[in-house]
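ZP: hey, is the carboxymethyl coenzyme *A complex queued? I don't see it on the tracker
AM: it wasn't, my bad. submitting now with these inputs:
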Amino acid sequence: TGYITLDEGYVNTGATTSAITFLDGDKGILRYRGYPIEELAKKCRFIEIAYLLIYGELPTKEQFDHFRGMLFRHTMLHEDMRLFYNGFPRDAHPMAILGSVVGAMSTFYQDSLDPHDQEQVDDSIVRLMAKLPTIAAFAYKKSIGQPYVYPDNSLSYCANFLRMMFAVPSEKYEVDQDFVDALNLLLIVHADHEQNCSTSTVRMVGSSNANLFASISAGISALWGPLHGGANEACVQMLEQIRRDGSNVKKYVDMAKDKNNNFRLMGFGHRVYKSFDPRATIIKEACHRILKKQAIKDPIFDIALELEQVALNDPYFIERKLYPNVDFYSGVVYRAIGIPEQMFTVLFAIGRLPGWIAHWVEMHANPAKKICRPRQIYTGPSKREITPMDQR
Ligand code: CMC
């Protein structure tokens, strides 16, 4: 009550303290639990990172084996859950399917909905981490009309996902280790980014003591938007459009500067990074690596490199400190792996899941936790009388 500070878009409002991710936007630093992202991307597996984010420390060998074992036990979907897929239109966006099926997990696992029961929370964490790749791959198989491929728990988290995406019953499927490594790296760099829009959504929903499945489903919806996770799909569509339009990069840079035009350079700019986004640097290197190793010539990578150069030398982008963000090059790597555009944001969701969970768990562990309830400054009419309908 009384004095309210207005901060549209929460540009300067701290919503919480957090011990999960450190981010310095001016220096381009990102660390999970104190470890630099560059090191983690080089030396760790995604499941280790998930454990680190959620439980606070890198796992010992025993802890890792236990966690991995638990995940493997839960990769299958309940057969009734698989039936949901029959009801979605064939051209449904996989992000819509992902959000719906994750939301529906709260109907299948009613024994793990209590946010204050540690055992139930641990169960829901394992179920979400284990099943999200299966839910995602089934959404893709549905969209192309192929039979669903059930999980193979002898494979790693990433290899299993690629197999569920790309294997077909009539052919032998060999997982390419370069693709597994690239996917592992992409999931790691997406795993957390402190109080971003989807994470704040997960916290906001969770603050009412809604269960973890419901909170994560809300986070998936928030991530879908093109200003957030949806930017990776929008970015590749933009690069494709530039290619079809004669690869005239400058024209698009000029369009993005034009204030009478809504067009923005997708994959450029960030609320917090005001110098380079360290994730973009890591992914750009991975792009070079995988395209070279697989001898892939992707014209949109060349367009992306040129676009970056032109924009970074343009006063408009320099003055506003707009640099490529995580979504600028990730799509090129996904394409190299064979992942179609409509699945890019789904991959972001699989990567971000441990971050969402970690923040939800951290919020509930905080004795000062309160329901999130921002205030407003009312700008509508002052008190007035109702005119009877026949006189309006
Ligand atoms: N292209 C052209 N101009 C831009 C862009 C862009 N991509 N991004 C920001 N600007 C301009 C904007 O028009 C504004 O100019 P002015 O001061 O003249 O009004 C100025 O830069 C500041 O932008 P803002 O919209 O006030 O900044 P914000 O912090 O509210 O928005 C952003 C951050 C990421 C939403 C925005 O940069 C954007 O729309 N980028 C394109 C979408 C994108 O790549 N999103 C992915 C973000 S990173 C991963 C993730 O969050 O999922």
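AM: back. The chain has a mean pLDDT of 96.
ZP: great, adding it to the tracker
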